[in-house]
Amino acid sequence: MASLGEVLGSLSARLLPPEVEFGLPTGRPPTPRESIAKARDEWLAAKNYFEIVSDPDLVDHAIYLLEAAERKYMYLLKRAKTLGPDNPSF
Fold first, then answer.
1. Are 45 and 69 contained in the same domain?
2. Long-range CB contacts (within 8 A, 24+) of 70-75
3. CA 78/CA 84 separation, integer angstroms
4. Among candidate residues 90, 6, 80, 13, the one with its CA nearest the CA of residue 40
5. What is the largest distance, in Å, between two alpha-carbon atoms of the chain?
6. 84: helix, coil or strand?
7. Per-residue confidence band for 30, with pLDDT thresholds at 50, 70 and 90
8. pTM check: above 0.85
């Protein structure tokens, strides 16, 4: 009998392209500039979601997403300002 890890590995190998592992790209890590741009896109998407959501149950979810995305973006900007966006230890 196969273990759960083996079954999930086999299933993900069939369903996901080879450059993706558990939903994450397996290539090089993103550059600091790419991370900041992605965080900004996530923040703008969260703002848009917050502005269009109307269900009271989803408003709390939208607020949570917006605050988390904003904090991530602000953290990365602050870190880039402190260390420099091209610093290898970023």
1. yes
2. 70/43, 70/46, 72/39, 72/42, 72/43, 73/36, 73/39, 73/40, 73/42, 73/43
3. 9
4. 80
5. 53
6. coil
7. confident
8. no
Separation of alpha carbons 90 and 21, rounded Å: 24
* β partners of residue 25: 20
Pick left, alpha or beta for residue 35 (phi over 0 → left; psi -120 to 50 → alpha; otherwise beta): alpha
Domain count across the chain: 2
Does residue 59 share a domain with residue 21? no
Residue type, 47: K
Residue ranges making up the domain that contains 15: 1-28
Contacts of 89 (CB under 8 A, 6+ apart): 83
pLDDT of residue 65 exceeding 90, the answer is yes
Residues 70 and 38 in one domain: yes
Rg (CA), the chain: 18
